[in-house]
Amino acid sequence: MIDSNVANILEREIQPVIKDWLARVEKEPELMCIPLNFEERTGHLPHLLHDVVARLRLDTGSKAPISKAAAEHGDLRRKQGYTVAMAVEESRLLQVSIFSMLHKDVKQLDFNSLLLDVVTIADEVDAQLKQQMLRFMAADAAKAAAGRSSFARV
Question: pTM value?
Answer without folding.
Answer: 0.88
